[in-house]
Amino acid sequence: MFTELMPLIVQRPLTITVAVLSDRQIRVNVVPQTLEKDGKVNDKVAYSNKDKVAKVPDEAIKALTTPLSLTGTAEEIDAELAQALREFAESHLQLQRTVDQAKEEMAEAVKAIEERDKNKAKAKTTARPTTPGEDANIDQAGLTNPGLFDTAARPTAKDGGKPSS
């Protein structure tokens, strides 16, 4: 019995109860206990990121403490308990791995969002808007001054206002 439960016991404490229901019927309950870390699964998703990153549903977190309950005669329980405990432990461990993986992925997503937002804010502060008078290649009239390698020059008073060819 405990060999089958050992992988689950390592992850979280269990409560086992055995009760007599009638002359020949008994009930065995195996109840995984809630851990403090269960309530912190969604802590990485801050209020500001709640619409950007999905949280682990409360039902999935509560499923980590879903109990196993077997009812039958002592002979039936003896015959089926080991297999039922093995399957129970395996399903709980798989669910725990899934929740842990989701927690890691949420933390990575939040980190990526925060980095992206930080880079956006940084880009906004370093990029300043230019006005026509600030750009070196634009004069007061809004005309572009020729560059060193431009072929057409702006008309000047010296050549009679005609563009050079």
Shape: rod-shaped
Relative strand content = 5-15%
Q: What is the H/E order?
A: HEEHEH
| Poorly predicted residue ranges | none
Strand order of the largest sheet: 1-2-3
Give a quick rundown of the structure:
The protein has 165 residues and is α+β, with helices and mostly antiparallel strands. It has helices at residues 2-11, 58-63, 74-126, and strands at residues 14-20, 26-32, 68-72.
What does this structure look like?
With 165 residues, the protein is of the alpha+beta class. The chain has one domain (2-125). It is built from three helices and three strands, in the order αββαβα. It has a three-stranded antiparallel beta sheet with strand order 1-2-3, with helices on one face.
Question: What is the secondary structure topology, with strand pairs?
Answer:
Elements: H1 2-11, E1 14-20, E2 26-32, H2 58-63, E3 68-72, H3 74-126
Antiparallel strand pairs: 1-2, 2-3
Helix pairs in contact: 1-3
Features:
165 residues, alpha+beta, 3-stranded antiparallel sheet
